[in-house]
Amino acid sequence: MKIVIYGAYGYQGRLVLAQLARHDTEIVLAGRDARRLAADAGGRETRVAALTDHDALVAAFRGADAVINCAGPFTPSGTAVARAAIAAGCHYTDTSGEQLHVKRIYDTVSADAERAGVIVTPAMTDGGVPGDLLARLLSEHLGGGPLHEVLAGHRVSGGGGMSRGSMRSLFGTVDVLKSGGLAYEDGEWRADVQPRLSSLTFPGDSPVPAVRFALNEVVTIPHHLEVAHVQGFVEAELAALFSDAIPEETIAAQPEGPDGDTRRGERWTIVVQATTPDGHRAGAWAEGPDTYGTTAVMAAEGTLRLSGPPGVRAPAEVLRPAAFLDALAPYGITWKVGRPA
Ligand SMILES: NC(=O)c1ccc[n+]([C@@H]2O[C@H](COP(=O)([O-])OP(=O)(O)OC[C@H]3O[C@@H](n4cnc5c(N)ncnc54)[C@H](OP(=O)(O)O)[C@@H]3O)[C@@H](O)[C@H]2O)c1
What we know:
The chain is an alpha/beta fold and about 350 residues long.
């Protein structure tokens, strides 16, 4: 397989490169700065293309099987990279955590991807993949029929905080985050909805206050499950970090991201609960270390395993959920479906 990493010399791009390099995969580094690409290439091919130059992007992607886009913030420009990947006949994944971007990809490029015979799966991240896969497994656990609601919650603790790129992405959409973002209600995505819960219970802990949040699962889960309501939540303590935008000068003065040792001290947990129309309920969780390291694993391993019908597809449609989650065990990631919720 030949894979182009766009935004390859960024903090997350370099982690994706390191993870892909564990495989017998041809890797091409792409981005807008020839000098920085060459510095990281280690003898690999590099291709230079600006986000605003569609033809250059298509030329940079031509001949590859897939593109992994790590060039955030994605809300302003991620769709351009997806469109170029489709035009070049490549599958597309990205490391976005921006709900607006993910929704726009689902809304705008699906028909083109189907015509081109390629798979487009945004949000191949620590935050975007496990909750979507757990929701599918919970649905099967509950008999595979329609669901009344699916609620997903995230918690992150420890570690060295966010990369500069994450800060730019999150604080660039701080109004969306403060509003709680989109929820799925009876066939449409809406922002003006009441939260369906006010606390989350993470494994081995007592309930903690939670608020509605712009999670990607809210976009992806209704794509493959018949469900009336989907909402995303984070621990209120985490959401409080996003109460005010941080100016670019402050972000630019931060380190590019946490170092490896600090990252490995971080823990993430995702809980999902699903309820059937007749009130049967079950829960699931996944947890692991190092959100950026996990995102590199999700993006690299997920892209290598993409299979299924072309179009814009949720993680659960292009990965085998239980097998994929099991394959993450060497990275310290554990999961369980069916705990009482
Ligand atoms: N769970 C999650 O949701 C999750 C987890 C991990 C990462 N992420 C996301 O991944 C993204 C990357 O994070 P990061 O820490 O790697 O950021 P970063 O270090 O700032 O790297 C961003 C990369 O994108 C490139 N880029 C940005 N704007 C560009 C433009 N207009 N044209 C061409 N290239 C451009 C940068 O190149 P230049 O330096 O030349 O600008 C750089 O290579 C962020 O959006 C972050 O939120 C999300």
